[in-house]
Amino acid sequence: DQQVKQNSPSLSVQEGRISILNCDYTNSMFDYFLWYKKYPAEGPTFLISISSIKDKNEDGRFTVFLNKSAKHLSLHIVPSQPGDSAVYFCAASAQGAQKLVFGQGTRLTINP
Amino acid sequence: NAGVTQTPKFRVLKTGQSMTLLCAQDMNHEYMYWYRQDPGMGLRLIHYSVGEGTTAKGEVPDGYNVSRLKKQNFLLGLESAAPSQTSVYFCASRGTYSYNEQFFGPGTRLTVL
Fold first, then answer.
1. B34 has a chain A CB within 8 A of its CB
2. Which is the most buried residue in A63, A67, B49, B105, by most CB within 10 A?
């Protein structure tokens, strides 16, 4: 049972445009959500997070939106840059839980 | 400050062989995790530890064992490797108050023939 789903395995965006990565979850107990970025041959690195008490969190070019009623979150990158080409993982955790549940990942490619 | 390191970076095993993957962190983190990454499957939790001397099963623990004898180290063992264990293995750690922001090592690519 995949509790966190990223239904788009890949996404291609032109440099300078907006990239939107989506993530759905099924567990209503999840209350904290994170996005990780992964380059080839490296470990994932934390990018941005959001608590369930918020519906938006912004950090520079990166914004995460949370729609609790739809159990959906999205990561917006604007403007997209070539260095943003990577695999992005969505992750979620429940209050008191000591672990994360990850989605399958979306490979983002920024074209010049 | 090296963060999270993993040894070895690459390894090829034959079916039935055993090996141990070592993870070390120098951030004094309480929590440590072992994941495997497979195409289309994302990161799946194998085992984790909430402190020295403790271990717990994750999502896919079968065929693996772990030990956390020292706070800074978390070992992942494969007693009898199988081709299905061919994967990239990542170790991660986090502090008690970082609310699940985990820091990952660079990974170990394991091939079982």
1. no
2. B105
- The residue type of B98 is S
Q: How far apart are CA A96 and CA B94, in angstroms?
A: 14
pLDDT in tens, B43-98: 999 999 999 999 999 999 999 999 999 999 999 999 999 999 999 999 999 998 77
- Does residue A33 contact residue A64 with C-beta atoms inside 8 Å? yes
- Residue A16 CB contacts under 8 Å (≥ 6 apart), including other chains: A79, A80
Mean pLDDT score of chain A, rounded to an integer? Answer: 95
- Contact between A23 and A5 under an 8 Å Cβ cutoff? The reply is yes
> Which residues have C-beta within 8 Å of that of residue A7, sequence separation ≥ 6?
A22, A24
Contact B45 A100 (CB under 8 A): yes
Residue B79 DSSP code: S
Instruction: Give yes or no for a contact between B85 and B110, defined as CB atoms under 8 angstroms apart.
Output: yes
